[in-house]
Amino acid sequence: MSWSHLRSTPAVVVSLVLIGQIAGYHLIPSQEYLPDQRPLSEFKHDIDDWSMVGETPIDKEVQALLKADDSINRDYRSPSGERAFLFVAFYRTQRAGVSPHSPQVCLPGSGWRSELFRRAVIDLPGRPQSQVNYYIVRRGDQQSVVLYWYQTSHRVIANEYLAKLYLVADSLRYRRSDTWLVRVVAPMLDGNIANAEKAGIRFARAVYEPLTRYMPGPVQ
């Protein structure tokens, strides 16, 4: 029997995640710190030159699948006509197998088809060279740029597998497993995907610092 497939990078990463989760199950302290969090309903309607123009409630069926402790789903626009949709989900604990749903799964379920995926490095306030997920998606004649990442009080993470490894480490060190999923969607309005990309990145930078004020602070 050949074991060469276990030498591949994806197989190694998956194996490490599984080992980490098994180890974490036995090693994580039984008493978890559950942080308080400001309600996202209070999040600012105006961010720099962006203003909220709409908010879509998450219906009960989606919320039952999402299982987030708090979330917002908003539409922002700038004076120049740029548009950005912000979705944020907060999970106070991931102990019971509850974790953020990857947009890689949710977007196709909404009829969007991925045309490009890569990791992108952007400078977020206080966190230069942060790695995020970058998608170009299409539904019919509509195209959008999607940026999303996972966030804790200590880091910004793009890779889902790496997020799982950090989950085990943070549960051991800080006795907490809270996390955030932040997603920005910038639709293409003028036939130029580069402009949608610029709008998405500009909005992500604008929203990042105000959003951290609603995130529980780090435990030393």
Report on the architecture of this protein.
There is one protein chain. The protein has 5 helices and 9 strands, in the order αββαββαββββαβα. It is α+β, with helices and mostly antiparallel strands and 220 residues long. A hairpin with a 2-residue loop joins β1 and β2. The longest helix is centred in the C-terminal third of the chain and has 20 residues. It is globular. The N terminus is likely disordered.
Give a short overview.
This protein is α+β, with helices and mostly antiparallel strands. Helix content is 31%, strand content 32%. The longest helix has 20 residues, at 193-212.
Characteristics:
220 residues, alpha+beta, 5 helices, disordered N terminus
Shape: globular
What's the structural domain tally? Answer: 1
Percentage beta strand? 25-35%
How many β-strands, per DSSP? Answer: 9
What is the string of helix and strand elements? HEEHEEHEEEEHEH
User: Tell me about the biggest sheet?
Assistant: 9 strands, antiparallel
> What is the count of DSSP helices, taking H or I runs of 4+ residues?
5
Q: Report the average pLDDT across residues.
A: 83
Any chance you could write out the topology, listing elements then pairs?
Blueprint: H1 9-27, E1 46-47, E2 50-55, H2 60-66, E3 70-77, E4 83-91, H3 103-109, E5 113-124, E6 127-139, E7 142-151, E8 156-157, H4 160-174, E9 179-187, H5 193-212
Helix pairs in contact: 1-4
